[in-house]
Amino acid sequence: MKKILSVFFIPLFALMFSTNVKAESLTLGWAAWDPANALVELSKEFTAETGIEMNFEFVDWTSYADRMLNELNNKGKTFDLLVGDSQWIGGGAVNGHYVKLNDFFDREGISMNDFSDATVYAYSTWPKGSENYYALPLMGDALAWAYRKDWFDRPELQSEFQSKHGYALGVPKTWDELYDMCSFFQGREIDGVVRYGAALNTERGSEGITMGVTAAMYAWGMEYEDPSNPYNSDGFFNAPNVVEAVDFYKKMYEDCSPPGHSNAYMGENLDAYSSGQVAFQMNWYAFWPGVAKGDKDGRVTGFFANPCQEICAATLGGQGISVVNYSDKKELAQQYIKWFARPDIQQKWWDLGGYSCHKDVLGSPDFVESAVYAQGFLDSMGIVKDFWQEPSFVELLIPMQENMHDYIVNGKGTAKGALDNIIEEWEEVFESEGKL
Amino acid sequence: MDTSRSPMEPSGFSRKIAAFIIIVYTVVTLIPITWIVLTGFKSVDSAVSYPPEVIFEPSLEGYVNLFTSRTRQSEEYLAELPPPETWYEELVRSKEMVITGPSKFFSRYLNSMIIGFGATFLSIFLGTLAAYAFSRFRVPLKDDLMFFILSTRMFPPIAVAVPIFIMYRKLGLGDTHIGMIILYTVVNLSLAVWLLKGFMDEIPKEYEEAAMIDGYTRFQAFFKIVLPQATTGIAATAIFCMIFSWNEYAFAVLLTQFNAQTAPPFIPTIIGEGGIDWPAIAAGTTLFLLPVMIFTVILRKHLLRGITFGAVRK
Amino acid sequence: MKKLVTKSKGLSDKAIGWLFIAPTIILLLLINVYPLIYAIRMSFTNFYANKLTQVVKNVGLKNYYKILGKEAIWEKMQITAHFMFWTLSLQIIIGLSLALLLNKKFKGNELLTTTIVLPMMLSPAVVGVFWGYLYNPQVGLFTYIVNFFYDFGSFDMLGSGTLAPWAIVIVDTWMWTPFTMLICLAGLRSIPGYLYEAAEVDRASKWQQFVYITLPSVLPFLLLALLFRGIENFKMFDMVMELTGGGPGSMTELTSMNLKREAFEKWKTGYSSAYAVILFVTIFGFGNVYVKVMNKIKDR
Predict the structure, then answer these.
(1) Mapping DSSP to helix (H, G, I), strand (E, B) and coil, where does residue A76 land?
(2) Do A42 and A101 reside in the same domain of the chain?
C-alpha cells in the first residue's frame, strides 16, 4: 500500500516543484489604446530585469468601466494590477478592491512628493486630499484640442478671418474665439472637399458627452457642490453660468459638427480628424503622440489646452495603477509598481509616449522641448478638474450622460431643466448613502 | 400531402405574381446580409467611401485586422524593421502598422463553440429524457409542471441575471465555461422539453409496448425503439438550442469577462486604429454567421418542421 | 429505486420516470426558481451588489413605490410599448401576406422559404452592430438607398430623436417577419381543402372565402406568433443596445435596457430586483390572460 501511495506522491511533488520553477508572471489590465501599447513596450525592461513575465489584457474604452468594475465586483482573480480610471478610486478604496499602498510606499522609500501634486490628488488619494494612497499615478491626462495648423497658415483664410472677426486666426484664447473659428470652417470647401468645424465629444453610452460638456462647464467656472456644504449641488451645478456653458456647447455641436457626429468619443473624433473632415478635435493628450505621428501629405497639427472663458480649467483624465486586492500575487505586483516609480523608468515612459507624472520628468529642462504638446500638458495639469470620484460615481454619471445627451443632441427640454434633473438624481443617490 | 389548396388551382398568373413578390422580398431582405459579407472584403477606406462601392477592389484587410492586434508606428520606425515575412504582415505594414500579436477573436469563437455545443448537447440529453417521461408516464401535476417549465422563458434575462450573477460569484462559476453551459442549458430546456414532448407524443406507444412484452425493459425500449424514431424531432430541437446558445448576448455580456467570453459580446468591441474598423467587424460578423447559415441550409427541412411544430400542435 | 415485479427486468416505470425528469426539474429549480426567489427577497432590501461591506437593510415596499412612482420608468414603458406595437403590427401584416403568397404553390418556394428565414438566425447583438453601419448618415447603404428614391440629404437615423425609434422598428421587423410568416404558413397549410370546395359549391366569392374560412383558421396561429414575439420584444435588449445604446438621449431606451443600467451599472441590486419582479409579473400576467383568451378562441 505504501508503495502505491508513494508512487502517487512523487509525481505530485514533481508537479508542485515544477510550478514553482516556472516563470512567474503578472497580469495587468488597462484600456486598449496607444499608451497601453507603449506600456507593453516599456514593460519588456521589467521582464528583462526581474524575469517576471508581464501579461496584458486590454479592453476598449467604451466597455472598459463596465467590464472592469464587473470583474472587481465579481472578485475576479484575472488581474494582479489594474490601471483604473481616476473616478474608480473611491469605489476601489471603500469597497476593498484596491490594496492600500501606504505601508508599501514607506517600506520601499517611494514618496508621493516625487509626483506632481495634482496627479497625486486626482489619481491616488481617497478620501480626496488625504494621505491614504490606493494607486500610483501612472498616466497624466487631460482633455485638450488639436487643430489643422496647415489650414490656419493659409494666407487667404487668415485674411478672410481677420476681416470677418477682427483678430488673427490662431490658437483660440477663449471659447468664444473657438466658436468663431470652428464655425468659420463649417461647410467650407478646402482643396475641393467640404470640411466641418470641430469633432466634439457626444457619446452616450459611457462618459463621452460628460467629458465634453464639462470642458465647457469648467471654463465657465462650474462647481459641482457648495464648497462649504458638500454634496449640495443646487444653486451651484445649475447656476446661470453653468446653464450658459451647456447652451454654448450645444450651439457648438449644432453649428460646427460634421453630420452624424451624434454619438462620438475618442475613436470617432480621431477618425473625423484623420480623414480631414474637421479643423478641430477635442481629445485626450494620450492620443497626441499618435496624431502627431500621423501628420503627412502636408497636414500639420497644432495643439492647445482647453480655452479659458471666465476661468481657465481643463477636464481631468488619466489613471493610476493599483494592486488588485483579490490577486494571489500582491507582493509580486508591488514589485512592478516599485520598478515603475523609478525616475529613470518614468523618463523612458514619457519617451515612449506615456504621460509620466513624476516631478523629475516634468520639471526637467528638456521636457518642454521634447514634444509639441508638452507645454500644453504642463499647463493643463495645473488647471484640471475631475468628475465625482465617489464610490457611487457611476450612479452620478449615468443621469448626467442621459440628460446632457437628451438636451444637447436630442434637443429635449432646456439646459436648466436638464441640470435640475441631474441634481435631483444626485440628491437621491447621496440621500441613500446617508451623505445628505 | 398538401390539403390547403383551394379547389380552384391558383391560376398560373396569380402564382407568377406571388412568386415575383416573394422573390423581390427575399432579395431585399438579403441585401443587408450580402452587404456585410461584401464589406468584410473591403479595405478600410473603401468601406467608408460614399457613395457605397458595390464594385470595389477586394482586400483581406478586414480579416487580417480581425485576427491581429496592431499599433501604428512612424515611418522611420517602419523603415528600420526587417522586411515582412508573411503576406499579412506585409499588408499591415503597407498601412503603416505593425502586428503585435493575435487578437482575441479566435478564442472567443472557440468559446462560442464550446459553450454552444456543450449547452445544446446537455439540453437535448436532459430534454429528451424529461420529454419522454412526460409523454409516457402519469406524472403528478403534469400540466402544472409543463407550464412551469414554459414560464421560465418569460423572465427577462436581465432580471434573472442579477441573482445568478451573485450566485455564480459565490460558487466561483462567474466567467467560466461550465457556468455558461449550465445557464444556457436551463434556458434551452424550457423550449426543448415542450418541443420534444410534442414529438414524442407523435410516436405511437404500441411499438414500445410490443417490445416490452417481448422482454425489453422500459429503458431498452426507450433507447432502441423510441429514440431512433424521434431523430427528426431531436434534430429540430437541437437546431433551436444551438441557435440560441450561439447567438445569446445578454447573459454573456453580464456573466463573462475574459475567460469564457463568447463572440457576440466581443464583436461590437472590435476597435480599429483610431476609428471603427468596419471591414474587421464585417469579417467577424460573417465568420460568426457562417456556422448558423450552413446549419440552417443543411437541416432546413427539420427546421421548418420545428418552427411550425409549436404552432400546429397545441 | 424499487424494483417492482414487472414483466421485464430493469428499472420500473416509476423509477425511470423520476430519473428522467429529476435532473431537468432540479436544474430549473436551481437556476430559475431559486434566483427568482432570491430576487424577490432582495427586492425588499437596499442591497448594493458592489458594496459588500455595507449593511443591508430591509426597506419593505419602498423600492416598489419608488419604481411605480418614477416618471422615467413609465417613459421607458411607453417607449417599449411603442416599439412592441409597431413591430408586432408590421410583422403580423407582412408575415401573413407573405404566407398567403407562399401558400400558392410555385416552383422554388421551398428554397425561397429557407433563404427568407436567414435574418432570424443571426445574433441580435451582431445585427444591431452592423445595422449601425448601414444607418450611418455619411457612408451607410440604407442612407444611400433611401436617398436614391427621394433625396433627403443627410439624415441621421440613429442620432435623430424622431427617427431613432423607427430605426429599431425597421431592424426588428426585418429580422422577425420570417418567423410570423412561417407560423402563418403552417396555419394556412393546415386548413383542409374541402372547406374551400364546399364554399365554392355555395358560390362564395374569393373575398368571402378569405374572410370566413382563411382568417378564422389562421387566427390561432397569428395569436401564437403574436404571443411569442410579444414576449420577446418586451424583453428586447441586445439588438437595441448595440444599435442605439438607448440614444439619442433616452429615446430608444427600452425597459430591459433601463433595468440593465440600474442593475449592472449602478449596482442598485435591491431596487433593480423590485424592477425585475414588476416586469416579470407583468409578462406573466399578460401571458396568462393571453393564453386563456387564445384557448377560448381555439375552442370556438
Answers:
(1) coil
(2) yes
How many Cβ atoms sit within 10 Å of the Cβ of residue A134?
Answer: 25
> Do C128 and C243 meet the contact criterion of CB atoms below 8 Å apart?
yes
The 10s digit of each residue's pLDDT in C169-204 is 999 999 999 888 888 888 888 788 888 888 888 888
Residues linked to residue B99 through DSSP beta bridges, in sequence order: B70
Name the 3-class secondary structure at A271: helix
d(CA A209, CA A250): 11
For the sheet with A81-85, list strands across it.
A53-59, A25-31, A81-85, A319-323, A136-139
Q: Do C134 and B35 touch (CB under 8 A)?
A: yes
Quote the pLDDT of residue A206. 86
The kind and range of the H/E element at A138 are strand A136-139
CB contact under 8 A, A293 and B74: yes
Residues A74, B169: C-beta atoms closer than 8 Å: yes
Residues of A in contact with B79 (CB under 8 A): none
Model pTM greater than 0.80? yes
Alpha carbon distance A317, A287 (integer Å): 12
Half-sphere exposure of B241 (CA within 13 A, CB side): 36
Neighbours of C62 (CB within 10 A): 16
Q: What is the CATH number of the domain that holds A28?
A: 3.40.190.10
Q: With contacts defined as CB-CB under 8 Å, which chain B residues touch A70?
A: 254, 257
pLDDT at A46 over 90: yes
Question: Residue C70: pLDDT band by 50, 70, 90 thresholds?
Answer: confident
Question: Mean pLDDT, to the nearest integer, of B232-236?
Answer: 82
Rounded CA separation B12/B10 (Å): 6
Domain that holds residue A287: 143-315+392-432
Helix (H, G, I), strand (E, B) or coil at C135: coil
Task: Count CB atoms within 10 A of the CB of residue C154.
Answer: 11
pLDDT tens-digit series, residues C224-276: 888 888 988 998 899 998 898 887 888 899 999 999 888 888 888 888 889 98
Determine, for residues B175 and A76 on separate chains, whether the beta-carbon distance falls below 8 Å. Answer: yes
Percent of chain A whose predicted confidence (pLDDT) is above 90: 68
Rg (CA), chain C: 25
Of A39, A98, A97, A87, residue with least CA distance to A64: A87
What is the pLDDT averaged over residues A396-424?
93
CA-based nearest residue to B66, from B230, B221, B281: B281
Distance CA C241, CA C254 (A): 9
Tell me the residue type at B164: I
Grid cell in block for residue B47 = 468601406
pLDDT in tens, C127-161: 998 898 899 887 888 988 888 888 777 788 888 88
Least confident piece of the model among A210-219, B231-240, C93-102: B231-240
What residues contact residue C298 under an 8 Å CB cut-off, 6+ apart? C220
Average of per-residue pLDDT values in chain A: 89
Residue B222 grid cell: 426507450
- Place domain C69-299 in its CATH homologous superfamily: MetI-like (1.10.3720.10)
Residue B55 has pLDDT above 50, yes or no: yes
Question: Do both A167 and A100 map to the same domain?
Answer: no
Q: Where do the domains of chain B lie, and which CATH numbers do they carry?
A: 106-269 (1.10.3720.10)
A15 pLDDT above the threshold of 50: no
CB-count exposure of residue A190 (10 Å: 0-12, 13-18, 19+): middle
Cis peptide before B163 (omega within 30 of 0): no
What's the complex ipTM?
0.81
Residue A15 lies in a domain: no
Residue B260 main-chain phi, psi, to 5 deg:
-110, 20
Reply yes or no on whether the pLDDT at C213 is more than 90: no
C287 and A CB contact within 8 Å: no
Instruction: Count up the domains in chain A and report the number.
Output: 2
Asked if C165 reaches chain A (Cβ–Cβ under 8 Å), the answer is: no
